Amino acid sequence: MKELDIKLNQYFGGKVVRKDLTKLVKGNAIVPMYVLEYLLGQYCATDDDQTIIEGVETVKSVISKHFVHRDEAQIVKSTVKEKGSHRIIDKVSVKLNDNKDQYEASFANLGLNKIPISGELVTQYQKLLTHGVWCILTLGYVSTDEKGSTPWVIESLKPIQISNINLEEYKEGRSHFTKEEWIDVLLQTMGLNPEEFTFRSKLLQLTRLVPFVENNYNLIELGPKGTGKSHIFSELSPHGILISGGEVTAAKLFVNNSSGEIGLVGYWDVVAYDEFAGKSKNTNRGLVDIMKNYMANKSFSRGTNVYGASASMVFVGNTDHSVPYMLKHSNLFDALPKDYYDTAFLDRIHAYLPGWEIQKLRNEMFSSDYGFIVDYLAEILKELRKEDRNNEYSKYFQLSNSITTRDKDGITKTLGGLLKVIYPDGVYTEEEIRELLEFAIECRKRVKLQLQSMDETFEEVDFSYIVKESGTVVTVDTLEVLEHLTPEPSASLFQNNESTDNTGFTVQPQIELTEGQKILRDNQTGISYSNLFGNYLAGATEIKITDPYVRLPYQLRNLMELLKLIAEKKTQDEEVKVHLTTTNNEDFVQDSKDAFEQMTMSLESVGILFTYEFDNFIHDRSIDLNNGWKIVLGRGLDIWQKTGGWFDINEYVQEKRLCKACEVTFVKKKDSTPNLEDTSKKMKAKTSKGKDNKQLYLVLAKEWFNEILEGKKTEEYRAFTDHNISRLGIIKDGAFVGCRQYETVKFQLGYTKAAPQMIVEVKEVVIEVDDGNAEMLTSDNCNFTIVLGEILEKTNC
Question: Is the pTM of this model over 0.85?
Answer without folding.
Answer: no
